[in-house]
Amino acid sequence: MIPGRFEYHQPESLDAAVGLLGKLGEDARVIAGGHSLIPMMKLRLAMPEHLVDLKAITDLKHITVDGGVISIGAMTTQAELIGSAELALAAPIVKETALQIADPQIRYQGTIGGNVANGDPGNDMPALMQCLDASFVLQGPDGQREVSAREFYEAAYFTAREDLEILSAVKFAVCSGGYAYEKQKRKIGDYATAAAAVLLTKGGDGGCSHAAIALTNLADTPLYCEEASNSLMQSGVDAASIDGAVASCMSIIEPVEDNRGPAEFKKHAASMVLRRAIELAWSRA
């Protein structure tokens, strides 16, 4: 199908983009890579009268590592995440995750900001950002604020971002220890049937000094598995504790039947990818 009529705007600064949203009001939508919004417009499920394109705002395209903190501009593409040698050293799980998003053609256009901002529970980066305990930088008419990724997602396509705010960057600490992003999907380029992001750090005593687990596409939001993460830090990482962590995660997921399979199949897939992710992260730790 063909989208409805709209006016196209291409501001050259973040302030100008925020100003346009304030001027145009609820009839305007921000577009980054466009892989979520354009298909909705073609189906007439979204019919904005104005599109505010962020691609000319150079300040939104960057990857910096400074003082143990990684900052990534919202318009940085998945391909740029994959190609950054500095990011691969500072947070290799980001590259591992980005390589599993869609296909190369989409990764050259799709952005990290678009992936995390629209609240699609099937997107891969939101759960990864919860695992990394990232914060999202939001710019609006009242200035700038930061929101934790673990508090950002409220329901499918509903987030803590206000209507006149633009997500400008994501920030998180440099990673240490083991990592894994494991994903089960029907075919190359598809959304996950189930996926798991895991970070594990081995302590001096051989135990687990830090653990973080998050899940993709198993509820109407990404899921940060706090109880399972804490249990691995308290009991270590062995066969019994992995069983316990998997069981804890399975108790909070709420998959629904769709064209990727029935709920019971998704639960089985989730347990498999989660177990693999924990074991791989621990082997890398």
At a glance:
By secondary structure, this protein is an alpha+beta fold.
Describe this structure in words.
It is a single chain. With 285 residues, the protein is α+β, with helices and mostly antiparallel strands. The chain has 12 helices and 14 strands. It has 3 domains: 7-53, Uridine Diphospho-n-acetylenolpyruvylglucosamine Reductase, domain 2 (2-Layer Sandwich), CATH 3.30.43; 61-173, Uridine Diphospho-n-acetylenolpyruvylglucosamine Reductase, domain 3; 178-284, CO dehydrogenase flavoprotein, C-terminal domain (Enolase-like, domain 1, 2-Layer Sandwich), CATH 3.30.390.50. Helix content is 35%, strand content 25%. A 5-stranded antiparallel sheet has the order 4-5-10-6-7. The protein has a 4-stranded antiparallel sheet with strand order 11-12-13-14. A hairpin with a 5-residue loop joins strand 12 (194-202) and strand 13.
What tags apply to this protein structure?
5-stranded antiparallel β-sheet; 35% helix; Uridine Diphospho-n-acetylenolpyruvylglucosamine Reductase, domain 2; 12 helices; 4-stranded antiparallel β-sheet; Enolase-like, domain 1; globular; Uridine Diphospho-n-acetylenolpyruvylglucosamine Reductase, domain 3; 25% strand; 3 domains; 285 residues; alpha+beta
Question: Secondary structure elements and their pairing?
Answer:
Layout: E1 7-9, H1 14-24, E2 28-31, H2 37-42, E3 50-53, E4 63-66, E5 69-73, H3 78-83, H4 85-90, H5 92-98, H6 104-107, H7 112-117, H8 125-131, E6 135-140, E7 143-148, H9 149-152, E8 153-155, E9 158-159, E10 166-173, E11 178-184, E12 194-202, E13 208-216, E14 223-224, H10 226-235, H11 239-250, H12 263-284
Parallel strand pairs: 1-3, 2-3
Antiparallel strand pairs: 4-5, 5-10, 6-7, 6-10, 8-9, 11-12, 12-13, 13-14
Helix pairs in contact: 10-11, 11-12
